[in-house]
Write a structure and sequence with these properties.
With 174 residues, the protein is of the alpha+beta class. Helices cover 47% and strands 21% of the residues. It is built from 4 helices and 8 strands, in the order αβααββββββαβ. The strands form 2 sheets. It has a 4-stranded antiparallel sheet. The N and C termini lie far apart (46 Å).
Length: 174
């Protein structure tokens, strides 16, 4: 391994390690109370996107200080981190929802805002490989929500209180 590649790997490991430590420190913010019925991502999830963008910027800057042969690798790693961080930021900031005794409303950047009444709920299923719940309503509305959302536990308990069995829920326990 030549010297500049070794430097690039070192920069990547230091920035990645810093990102991991900061994410662990921000993890405590995920445990803060959220108003009943609110569905959103915690600040800790959002900080993961910011940290990925930071790592991408460090790699981009580092690309100018390595040999020409390693520059492409640094730029490729920066691009991957920027795309992943950008998607995480957009998804976490634009996912918002609310539920009450009457209805649920949830929308995100990748899924348009959808609302449905609980009395139309026909089926609830848990998808263990994606770690999300899928709610199907009689009017054809399908609402999917991640277990990583703050308020997901309250929503699951609310669905269970409606006496609607959640298929696949035996594979995941709070």
């Amino acid at each position: 391994m030549n010297e500049s590649l070794r430097e690039l790997v070192g920069i990547f490991l230091v920035s990645g390690g810093t990102a991991a430590v900061l994410t662990l420190l921000a993890r405590g913010t995920n445990q803060k109370e959220v108003a009943y019925g609110t569905l959103d991502y915690a600040p800790g999830m959002k900080s993961g996107g910011w940290l990925a963008i930071t790592v991408a910027l460090v790699l981009l800057i580092a690309a100018f200080f390595v040999d020409q042969s390693d520059r492409l690798l640094a730029l490729a790693l920066a691009a991957v981190m920027a795309v992943l961080g950008g998607y995480l930021l957009l998804e976490t900031y634009f996912t918002v929802g609310h539920f009450d005794d009457e209805q649920i409303t949830l929308g995100s950047l990748t899924h348009p805002k959808r609302s449905a009444r609980w009395d139309n709920l026909e089926d609830a299923a848990f998808r263990p490989y994606g770690q999300y719940y899928m709610l199907s309503f009689s009017d054809g509305t399908v609402i999917k929500y991640s277990v990583m959302l703050r308020g997901a536990r309250d929503l699951r308990q609310h669905i269970e209180s409606l006496d609607v069995p959640i298929r696949g829920s035996d594979r995941f326990h709070w």
